[in-house]
Amino acid sequence: MHISNLLSVASLAALAAAAPSELERRQQNCVITDFNKIAGLSKYCDVIALRNIHVPAGQSLDLTNLKEGAHIIFEGRTTFGYAEWDGPLIKVSGKHITVRQSSGSVLDGEGERWWDYHGGNGGKTKPHFFSAHNLDDSRIEGLKVKNTPVHGFSLDSKNLVVSGVTIDNSDGDNKGAYNTDAFDVAHSYNLTIENAWVHNQDDCLAINQGDNIRFINGYCYGSHGLSIGSVGNGDVVSNVEITDSQIVNSQNGVRIKTKSGQAGEVRNITFRNISLTNITDYGLIVQQDYNNPGHATNGIKIHDITFDNIHGTALQKGYNIALYCGDGSCYNWSWKNVKIHGARDYKCQNYPSVASCSAA
């Protein structure tokens, strides 16, 4: 979208002092270059161009008080001051919002300042990057993110489309990045993530709770794979389609992980047309002992699951397929064209007879 007649900073200051009724009578296209102007102006603007914004240490770029239907455009390089805190560095909410960026722009987390090989499990306190909570009937498109300190996108919204997002944490491979999940999903309904490109050091996708979720045409490099879970504490994940995606040089391929001794449900999940290359640990894994290895329990049902055309390679030190279910809790599965080779067979238990735990 081309922004015409962008207001000068002086004009924006005048608008901030104007009565809201005057502002609401006409569309306002705003360009903001000063972080301190955002809070006072964002609620009045229909189009907000955030140009080369530097966010002070320990603060969020707060876009939670937007006009309905607002368009947010990141321009240039967005940066963040260093502080040890939980974040998020960016938070957006609202209805009918579009978030995108201009060509060549980047949201630069400069995560190497926090990376210490501990991720969220200790060491420095690291800020989560982007919170999209209550961002309903909206779109996030074409964002390019570099070097998140820890988790990337936290998605907790209804009728949200996330399209064409790039998350490049490749610098973290040898600099201590950990727990750099790309997309963490909870409490979401009718969510689509499409055409994502991810290089990170944890889950490419982790769905912990939600309904009617689609992940389409994703590319995941160096990750922990495409995951349902970990599910527990009574959470339900249902009606999920993960399709037409590539997982390369990653720890895991596709997986469902639930917690031992807890309640919940995983139902109506489809993994289809997933290509695996050089998976180090598990090409395909379903485990019901995620928090207590070796103790799979049946309090969480995993049923109406489709694995269709999951194919590729795992490394010799890993396992092609691992199915480790509680007694009677994994049932009503469909298993077609699952062909993973190169690694070892796993000693599986309590899995549906239609599935296979041997290399294909």
From TrEMBL:
Top-level taxon of the source organism: Eukaryota
Q: For this protein, what is the EC number?
A: 3.2.1.15
In this record, what's one Pfam family?
Glyco_hydro_28
Q: Which reaction does it catalyse?
A: (1,4-alpha-D-galacturonosyl)n+m + H2O = (1,4-alpha-D-galacturonosyl)n + (1,4-alpha-D-galacturonosyl)m
List the active site: H224
Q: List the keywords (alphabetical).
A: Cell wall biogenesis/degradation, Disulfide bond, Glycosidase, Hydrolase, Repeat, Signal
Q: Which GO terms describe its cellular component?
A: extracellular region
The residues the entry assigns to the signal sequence are 1-18
Q: Does the keyword Cell wall biogenesis/degradation apply?
A: yes
User: In Gene Ontology terms, what is one molecular function of this protein?
Assistant: polygalacturonase activity
Q: Enumerate the PROSITE patterns for this protein.
A: POLYGALACTURONASE
Question: Which residue ranges traverse the bilayer?
Answer: none
What SMART domains is this protein classified in? Answer: PbH1
InterPro entries reported in the protein's UniProt record: Glyco_hydro_28, Glycosyl_hydrlase_28, PbH1, Pectin_lyas_fold, Pectin_lyase_fold/virulence
User: Among the record's GO biological process terms, what is one?
Assistant: pectin catabolic process
Q: According to its UniProt record, which protein family does this protein belong to? A: Belongs to the glycosyl hydrolase 28 family.
Entry protein name: endo-polygalacturonase
